[in-house]
């Protein structure tokens, strides 16, 4: 057991908040291990804090696996040649998605200002190698996907997000004539207002089936925290009700016209 790193009262509060989130997400659990590492806070570029566990001593005793990481250029060519549409998908906290062997969990213990916890998922030096060896399924690939037929998903909307520095796009789904459901991370970073595009297939064109409703009224889940998947939902209020028709409605068969 080690002495803790010194922290201010504000830093201790932030550590407690992070630990609470990790416990609720089943990433860590309470521990009674006779071994523990220390924690410290690192400020990220966006001003938020990341809690880091100092596993240097544990990592120095870990038997390393040797698995070559591929060249990014080779992987890009292999999986994107001939593809028409491209997107990105960030695997949030991927190192928290691989379980730790039960016999090793006690070694991942760490001390905080208010407790003693241990990881049940990986957070050690071997995680890049472990992730590289996981099997990939073509069923979940986004690159190379087929284009949806016009109006085949009549409840989906495009959100044209307006910032002081420019614009961006996000997606959402109409859940009533007045409300759109979307992700909170789309709206949590300085969005001034947004244009909700309904019944559109190509956002680069003004289509005859398209409805456009401007709004600045949106609500993020009260427990959402930046860069966390939990509670990453938000609602957008439409000041003008959506007009439901054969091109845009609340279900695939366009029968629910409330």
From TrEMBL:
Provenance organism: Agrilus planipennis
Name of the protein in its database record: Coagulation factor IX-like isoform X3
A single GO BP: proteolysis
Molecular function GO labels: serine-type endopeptidase activity
Source organism, top-level taxon: Eukaryota
Higher taxonomy: Eukaryota, Metazoa, Ecdysozoa, Arthropoda, Hexapoda
Gene3D superfamilies: HIV Type 1 Reverse Transcriptase, subunit A, domain 1 (3.10.10.10), Trypsin-like serine proteases (2.40.10.10)
Entry-linked Pfam families: RVT_1, Trypsin
Keyword terms: Disulfide bond
């Amino acid at each position: 057991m080690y002495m803790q790193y010194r922290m201010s009262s504000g830093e201790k509060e932030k550590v407690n908040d992070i630990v609470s989130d990790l416990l609720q997400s089943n990433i860590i659990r309470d521990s009674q291990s006779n071994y523990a590492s220390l924690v410290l806070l690192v400020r990220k570029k966006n001003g938020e804090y990341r809690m880091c566990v100092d596993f240097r001593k544990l990592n120095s005793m870990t038997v390393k696996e040797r698995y070559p990481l591929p060249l990014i250029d080779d992987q890009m060519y292999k999986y994107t040649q001939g593809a028409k549409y491209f997107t990105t998908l960030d695997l949030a906290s991927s190192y928290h998605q691989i379980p730790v062997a039960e016999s090793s969990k006690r070694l991942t213990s760490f001390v905080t200002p208010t407790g003693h916890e241990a990881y049940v998922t990986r957070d050690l030096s071997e995680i890049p190698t472990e992730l590289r060896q996981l099997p990939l399924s073509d069923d979940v690939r986004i690159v190379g996907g087929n284009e949806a037929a016009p109006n085949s998903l009549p409840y989906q909307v495009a959100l044209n997000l307006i910032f002081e520095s420019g614009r961006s796009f996000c997606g959402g789904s109409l859940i009533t004539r007045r409300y759109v459901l979307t992700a909170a991370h789309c709206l949590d970073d300085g969005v001034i207002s947004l244009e909700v595009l309904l019944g559109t297939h190509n956002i680069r064109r003004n289509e005859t089936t398209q409805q456009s409703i401007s709004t600045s009224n949106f609500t993020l889940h009260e427990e959402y925290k930046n860069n966390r998947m939990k509670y990453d939902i938000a609602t957008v209020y439409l000041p003008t009700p959506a007009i439901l028709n054969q091109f845009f409605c609340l279900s695939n068969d366009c029968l629910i016209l409330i």
